[in-house]
Structure formats: C-alpha cells, structure tokens
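Per reviewer request, we include the raw input and output of the structure prediction for the construct analysed in the revised manuscript.
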Amino acid sequence: MCPPPSTTEVTTSTSPSTENNDHLVTSSDPNHPANLIPSLCAKFWHLGWVTGTGGGCSIRSDDLVYLAPSGVQKELMKPSDIYVLSLSSQPTDPEERKQRVYLRSPPQYKPSQCTPLFLAAFTKRNAGCCIHTHSHWAVLVTLILESTPSLNSKLFEINNIEQIKGFGKGHGKVGNLGYHDTLRIPVIENTAHEEDLTEFLEEAMDQYPDTYAVLVRRHGVYVWGDNVHKAKTMCESLDYLFQLAVEMKQLGLPWITDIEPTLPTRK
C-alpha cells in the first residue's frame, strides 16, 4: 500500500491555503500530468494493479513533480486530488528528506509514502514517470524466487521471450533489449513502512544501473521510464512477463534457456 506519511513529514504549501496553487492541476489538455495520472490509475485499477487504494503513479514535468495522494480510490481519482512539488527544492540530505515542501496539497488527503521512491527514479535516473503496482503476478514472482533454492532470490531473470523487446537497454543507452537478451530485475525486501524502502531501492538502482524496475518482495513493483509512454510500455511488458514466468514455473519450464539464434537462409 501507499499509506500516509509519518508525522515527521512537513506538507507545507508555498501559497496561501485559499489559493493552494490550483492552477498547477487545472488544464484542458488530456496529456497534462494532473489529467494523465487519474486516467492511468483508472486503467491500472481495471488491470488489478492498484486495488484497495494501493499502488500509485507520479509524473515529472521539468522541475514539477505530480503525485497521486494516499488513501484515494485510484479509479475515482480527480485532477484536484493531485499533489505537486518542485524537485529542485527538495532536501538532499537523507536526514532531512522527510521534510518535503509541496507547492500544492489537496486538503482532503495526505501525501503518499511512495513519494521518496518516485523521487529516487527522477533524481537518480532522470525519469519522466514512475509507476508503482501491487500486481499479484509481481508478488508471486518474488515468492517463487524466495522459495526456489536453485534461483537467486534477489534477482528475477528471463531471456528468449519476445516481450523482452519492450525494455530499454539502460539509462543513457540507445535502443531496446533484444529477443535473446536477458532481462534482470532486482528484488528488495519489504519493510513495514513504505518510505523505508527508499534506501534499498536506491541501492538496487546502483547495483543494477541498467534496470528500469525494482521488485519488492511480497509487495509489488516500481517501474520508471524516460516518459509516460515508455514507463507504461515497460510496466505492461513486465506484468506480461511476470505472469508468463509464474505459468512457466507451474509447467516446469526454465526462465533462462540457451537457444541458438535462428538466422535467415536468404539475404
């Protein structure tokens, strides 16, 4: 889930509460972040990714970061429910990072504990969008890894599957992975409070600089991309692969195979 923040978090608005910078979430453009987040979360709810107020989505537009709130039914979310903050204005010291200042804070909600994990994707990978789902396929994959001694419990790996082409080669690299490439997604352990996952997510990003996602054991997955289109594409592709991996495991099929490339006979 993405529960409310701890009581130490500051959610001060930089404008009078009577105004609350509502202009930041008011637009007729369907591609405006404040309109896209509710639209995307409604789609994710229908996929079963964000049920029971769990999961979330955040979009960065230059220096502004738009975030879904805590405790909202994702399929009912409105643009007026969205939080906004300035990325460059956030504290960088780990001891002060909970003291976040928001440019816009909807009075009826609280900011999500997912916020520092979304910010990690924006600051460490210059991502334009980060999606967090509670997909049961993602959870099942982490349980399979946990309970299978022959597998590395902290790394999901799969190759020789067409859908792998939906993933970029890595931050700053051109092009996507190929059919024969191996997709690797690190797994971190869950914590009682979501914001406490931040340091472990950042460590996984450092250890696997080419990854666009991090699995959280018994919890879900965080996926990010250069923009909304790429993040959504990779999130959908990853969920497909997680479901496939679970069903392959049930059939006794390996996730990693050694297949000789098939080359055309005619040029």
